[in-house]
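During the reporting period the student researcher (J.K.) took over the structure-prediction task from the postdoctoral fellow and processed the backlog of single-chain submissions. One of the processed entries is reproduced below for the supervisory committee.
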Amino acid sequence: MRLRRGLRLGLVAALLASVLAPLGGAPASAVTLPAGFQEQVVFSGLDQPTNIEFAPDGRVFVAEKGGRIKVYADLADPTPTVFADLSTNVHNQWDRGLLGLALPANFPADPWVYVLYTYDAPPGRTAPVWNDTCGDANNGRCVVTGRLSRLRASGDVMTGTEQVLISDWCQQYPSHSVGDLRFGADGMLYATAGDGASFSAIDYGQLGNPVNPCADPPGGTMTPPTAEGGALRAQDVRSAADPTGLDGAVLRLDPATGAAAPGNPAIDAADPNTRRIVGYGTRNPYRFTIRPGTNEIWLGDVGWNSWEEVNRIVDPRAGVSNLGWPCYEGAARTGSYDNANLNLCETLYTGAGQTPPYYAYHHGAEVVPGENCGSGGDAVSGLAFYPGSGGSYPATYAGALFFADYSRGCIWAMRPSSPGGLPDPANLQAFGQAAAGPVDLAIGPGAELYYADLTGGTVRRIRYFPGNQPPTAVINATPTSGPAPLDVTFDGTGSTDPDPADAGRLSYRWDFTSDGTVDATTPTATFRYPSAGRHTATLTVTDTLGVSASSSVTIQPGNAAPTALLESPAVGTTWQVGDRLSFAGRATDPQQGSLPPSALRWKLRMEHCESVGNCHTHHLQEWAGVASGSFVAPDHEYPSYLELELTATDAQGLSNTVVRRLDPRTVDLTFASDPQGLRLTVGATTGTAPFTRTVIVGSTNTVSAPSPQTVGGVPYSFTGWSDEGAATHVLTAPATAATYTATYAGAAGCGTTAFYTCGTATGRPWVPADTVLPLTGDDAVTQVTLPFPVPFFAETYRTAWVSGNGFLSFTDPGGPQPGNTVLPAAGAPNAALYPFWDDLWGRADSSVRIGVTGTAPNRRFVVEWRDSGMYGSSSARISFEALIAENGEIVFNYRDLNSSGRERGDSATVGIENPAGTLALPYSVNHPALADGTSVVFRPVASPPFVADRGERRQSPILDRRPR
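J.K. obtained the following structure tokens:
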């Protein structure tokens, strides 16, 4: 340790100049960084910064989501100049706003500042239309567009008028908006944008009122399989019969005109937008970067239900890359869009497929095992490449790709595994854990990583100190305002230093009135402010090598904070989609009395949760200078809730904030299949029916019944929904619980397993049984003792359970189980014979009987369902039986069946199933395949032939021996 500190002393002279004065901004202590790194706040007081760009002349440009661009003279400039204010044109609501910003490499000699933003008007109209307050931006009717423009710089301000290069990007929903801008090494301008589609439902262009407001092809109301709207806009370049849109695409442009750049792979196409596109199939490519010295595009695509992607377009001039969305998410098919059977996806699955992501991480998994990153959603955001050489970070970061997730609050480093190599997904490091809302990353002066903090309104940088690291000064002051004289207790014990040799050895200097005088030198102190005023109290902490850091707090004796009163909506107010909620509030101040509406600011946000309590934030809307107003409750998936925030600020800048949580009214919707066990899709998730989803009342939910499906080797075809909707259609959630059932028919036929073969036979004799079981009425089941050991799927049984609902199980089925299902199915019953599994009724003239025929070793156990009724019918009667031979052969016989309909099995399961419910040999499910005199025969593989009883006609048990 002594030798190490001696080496530090040798570095101190070189470090002091850079550490003491030009650090710029306050240290930020919440983030966890690797040893030797520290985060510092460079700029603060910004309003939702989205993008940062460093000019070659040292200036720093920052875009704010609402439409303003601010420019700082350098990193030490505390007061920016407003370069341009585009807020009249910018639609700032939900995830829409001014998101893209870029400067040419030789700026300001090339004096243009490029911007990409959501334009506050639908196609063909002029902003402002919505004025950032579209009543319900997520109802599919608040349609906007995107705009790419360039602004001429004259010093620190824009001169002349905005030059619009592209107006396009029809966006129906308030996420997946425009994206990012970058210049490549080739001097061309690259741009990205999202699909503008719903993030709650499967969106193929069928949503909104009127539907399809973006006029997606083929036009009008969208229906599968020909629909090409909604998220399918990201595949629009593949539908050559109509004009190409730019949603969900990556563009390579001539920066002077916005036209396709020379050398683009589709430069000879007739459509001007097709010529611009070098990549497509993206959902929300919010941020991308260019690998230094190349034109490689590395973009982060925000995922839906499962995967966040980092995609790589190796050479945008070599070919047009299809990144797959919405047909693919991650490297796999997107189940919900696959199940909707859309032509644009189905032809992709059978054709060239997608360009898979370079790296993807799952929403349910850590990126780096053991990391301390937040949860509550996923949204891959900023990306930046560290220089391959000459940087100030350790050599292991040379050529690394830094990428961030705004929702997780984390920054990772994907480092090459060999010098000069590509970033290696196997060499990932959790670099910045618990970072502050990172939405844009950039490598700035000193080859240091900078990021924009959307929620905190700051720009931060991460510095590396190879020797002595500076301390972090932390002040806790109580109170910071109140009547004069004001006694304030100051506590600096939260200050830290990352160097072990400095732990507990910091020195403290307090200046309570900003007059340059040291007022105290202890970790804690008390100071009296005798009269009203505004003072800055500063704490400077210094380590043992003389390196210092400071932090300040504002003290206002003679002034007390106002009190904000949120009067409506009342505590406990709930909402459903489409409700208009009014809000009202006021504020009082001890010095000023009642504050005017100009002192009030409202914020509405949606807490979007992957599970209850596991949420991230969407900023929906703001109102400034009003005491009341209203908003429309948005359409959104559940779990989620709204938060309404009121902040009151007095004339001296003291504020008070109150927040009201507004929970939605929910309803449980059950989705079932007939038969049970088939897979259905609701929104982004696919499950095995039946299952229940909790949704918000009034919400839009897209449901799909995939067809055909194959379960247990049997194909099933969709025949209808209980609400008479198409196979894929939209449900508006009702106020009360409901069940929606998709009915399927399974094709009849026999097959083979490792244990049994199946076939049909005619002319088999009916074998009556005499012993009547106590199975009457509805849903009865009873246990019986078998007359001989019965072999079944490599097990042997001595007891069985017989159900009035047409099946026999060798294990306890847990009840009569009236609902038939596909086979196999893990749920009970298992180890079962299903001669006619349906919801049956034991009427007065019905009976279930058992009996035994033959002698050992050729006995048969007979279970006969005689004249069974059917639930819901007063006239239907059927008879059927199961014959179980001592050698394991099983025969189902039928008689007294009608020529069509339910008696022939159009709501029944026929087959056999193993004990685990993992292997079965079904003959038919919900298919009218049964007939009088036709037997279904299951013969154990390699079993000896059955010897008929006397009086029975000897015949082959399996007549259908065609290969299956």
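The committee noted the following: Confidence is low (pLDDT under 50) at residues 1-25, 946-964.
J.K. will present the remaining backlog at the next meeting.
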